Amino acid sequence: xxxxxxxxxxxxxxxxxxxxxxxxxxxxxxxxxxxxxxxxxxxxxxxxxxxxxxxxxxxxxxxxxxxxxxxxxxxxxxxxxxxxxxxxxxxxxxxxxxxxxxxxxxxxxxxxxxxxxxxxxxxxxxxxxxxxxxxxxxxxxxxxxxxxxxxxxxx
Length: 155
What we know:
By secondary structure, the protein is an alpha+beta fold. About 35% of the residues lie in helices and about 35% in strands. The chain is built from one helix and seven strands; from the N terminus they run βββαββββ. Strands 4-5-6-7 form a four-stranded antiparallel β-sheet, covered by helices on one side. The chain has a three-stranded antiparallel β-sheet with strand order 1-2-3, with no helix packed on it. The protein is rod-shaped. About 15% of the residues are buried.
């Protein structure tokens, strides 16, 4: 036997030569297929986890944007009294399943002066929605300065 470039060459009498080319055995092919299956399975599992995380973050971003928009509306409406509890459903175009919001205006800091002195009010907005099977929540706070009411006026 003589080692050839690609396998072994058997010499026979005369000018005839027969080369034996080695291939992969069935066991080698099965081991390679198993390794590939494990690698692909791991890749798909991590892709699924990444997609679930992206969906959860997208919902959280939408809830946060809605929670930031609501205090702006309440801040601009000076007629909302202190202690008032406001609530409603999140608009369907926001994309939060079973989304609802709740807001309350409270006195944060009392003014030290008399009537007409500035008061600081806190507006807290809470948005809840269902993500999968578990409830989620986002809370945003805003503040506004109002003038202290005259005696006999509502606050």
